[in-house]
Amino acid sequence: MNDSNRVVLLVGGVGGAKLAVGLADILPPECLTIIVNTADDFEHLGLHVSPDLDTVMYSLAGVANPDTGWGVAGDTFQMIDMLDSYGGPTWFKLGDRDLATNLKRTQMLREGKTFAEVTQHLSEALGVQQQIVPMSNDSVQTWIDTAQGGMAFQEYFVRERWQPEVKAITFRGAEQAEPAPLIIDALDQATLIVLGPSNPYLSIDPILAVSGIREYIEQAKASCVAVSPIVGGKALKGPAAALMAAMRVEVSPLGIARHYDGLLDGIIIDTVDRSLCAQLEAGGLRTVALNTIMNTRSDKVELARQLLRWAEEDLK
Amino acid sequence: MNDSNRVVLLVGGVGGAKLAVGLADILPPECLTIIVNTADDFEHLGLHVSPDLDTVMYSLAGVANPDTGWGVAGDTFQMIDMLDSYGGPTWFKLGDRDLATNLKRTQMLREGKTFAEVTQHLSEALGVQQQIVPMSNDSVQTWIDTAQGGMAFQEYFVRERWQPEVKAITFRGAEQAEPAPLIIDALDQATLIVLGPSNPYLSIDPILAVSGIREYIEQAKASCVAVSPIVGGKALKGPAAALMAAMRVEVSPLGIARHYDGLLDGIIIDTVDRSLCAQLEAGGLRTVALNTIMNTRSDKVELARQLLRWAEEDLK
């Protein structure tokens, strides 16, 4: 492994966080920057809740709940249980330890700290050495138009369990939002940019929609690769496959490659989809088939190791 | 017991809440109104925290922590523990279940509900049938001038463990604050007004300072009695005795009687202070010596029963 590798990883929640853990195991901490979707953030119980950011932070800190991928390992739900007595709302299950993160973040934001500064404080406090950066200090909100009307992301995703049929997705405020300060430098200095195995529509697109980020990636010296979140015609988690079907996009790494058209130099697909390699290569993308299903820690590290080796050997 | 008794009890936290529990055991729910000090309220972690109100509410709901008198029985402290990782603040020990109360209250206040409405919602949700009323819907803040400078009540009481020498106590906003809507009616209809065994300076005085409340009590048809919080020359809990000494007031029921000069028709003192009965009676106050130390539920009920009987027989 070349120590001069500088990797920028773009992610949403659980899937991307797994790859972040793998990369963090291999790269020196200063060589990994993770840009996280914050368009799912919402105000709940007066708190600024950042589900993706916290999933990445807890994962890198080694305190994530291993069963769900989000929330804090061993967390309790005394607050939510009591809140139920008061008539809720209880649809968003904030754990008691998780509450501390949200209370502290909200307090620091009210004190005038930027979102990136708050994120750095929280992640350093938990012992995270890598740079976790929210995509912007400004507010961007994913808005979902569904057959049941418009709703904010968490209402669609958690409250409605992503069952309503999606008509359109917009990122309110994205055009006016500036990339968080560290992002441009990180992209400038990157040797590799990785779009994590996250939902392209709901996790990666909002990051790319922030004013300038897509253009910086297109112009960057570094190669850009994506890890397909679609494996064997299904999403490993969440609504990616359902969204692609609703948008009449082929539910396969081919659909992913097409979605990221103009951005990618290469794509990592799962071994079960290896028959698609030739077609992807013919479309101009360097392609590698690896085990992308990260159930264990060693799965995560192994995917990261092979991804980096492939990028170094085959993308130059 | 005469069912046409209508009692209004003025209280602060733990001591007053014990008497409230005793009275609640005897009186029909609609015949007991508890007016609670809210000048100790403060904003903490962005939440509106009301320590006295919650102590009374949890006590009447039967969910108060029996060891401390405040907080929720069996509560956990996962949030505070995690917040410690982030650098706190942890000096105010909000339990996880207690957090739900504070989150819900803060949210309802932000939605435009009055403080009295919020209090009614929370206490009804916990099954409390008596009327718990904050002294005002408006903000009043106890401010303590000490030898170490000025500080808000909770800073003095919790953070500094009431060790700084007190120079003066003021209730900021009290003159502009209106009594909460139910208070005037309750005082009008009362057959007995009881100043609970709470700190006169820090718990009862702020209620009396709210514009008009003292005058309504003075003019009320009902008799007004106080339960002395000083027993055998000491406060049962908290800084009352230290404050009286600092103010060169006699630390005894005589000092309490003098403090409430002009308000009282009678006073309940502890049996250990019974030698003071004659002096108090000579000063124009009907006086009774009872066991005022409420360790057990039956202590609370017994004090309430004897207090009501005495008021009915000796105060008319």
Q: Please work out how many helical segments of chain A DSSP would assign.
A: 13
Largest sheet of chain A: 7 strands, parallel
What is the CA-CA span between the terminal residues of chain A? 15 Å
Query: What is the string of SSEs of chain A from the N terminus onward?
Result: EHEEEHHHHEEEHEHEHHEEEHHEHEH
Poorly predicted runs of chain A? none
Biggest interface between chains: A-B, 31 and 31 residues
What is the molecular shape of chain A? globular
Counting copies of identical and different chains, the oligomeric state is homodimer
Helix % of chain A is: 40-55%
Overall number of strands of chain A: 14
Beta fraction of chain A: 15-25%
The neighbouring-strand order within the major sheet of chain A is: 5-2-1-9-10-13-14
The pLDDT mean of chain A sits at 95
Structure, briefly:
Chain A has 316 residues and is of the alpha/beta class.
Note the main attributes of this structure.
homodimer; 316 residues; alpha/beta; seven-stranded parallel sheet; 13 helices; 14 strands; 19% strand
Structural notes for this entry:
2 copies of one chain form a homodimer. By secondary structure, chain A is of the alpha/beta class. Chain A is 41% helix and 19% strand. Chain A is built from 13 helices and 14 strands. Chain A has helices at 14-26, 51-61, 78-85, 96-110, 115-125, 153-159, 181-189, 200-209, 213-219, 240-246, 253-259, 277-282, 297-314; strands spanning 7-11, 32-36, 42-44, 47-49, 131-134, 141-146, 149-152, 166-172, 192-195, 223-227, 230-231, 234-235, 266-270, 286-290. In chain A, the strands form 4 sheets. In chain A, strands 5-2-1-9-10-13-14 form a 7-stranded parallel β-sheet, with helices on both faces. In chain A, strands 7-6-8 form a 3-stranded antiparallel β-sheet. In chain A, a hairpin with a 2-residue loop joins strand 6 and strand 7 (149-152). In chain A, helix 1 runs parallel beside helix 2 (51-61). The longest helix of chain A is centred in the C-terminal third of the chain and has 18 residues, at 297-314. The first copy, chain A, is globular and about 60 Å long. The model of chain A has no long low-confidence stretch (mean pLDDT 95). The interface between A and B is medium-sized, with 31 and 31 residues.
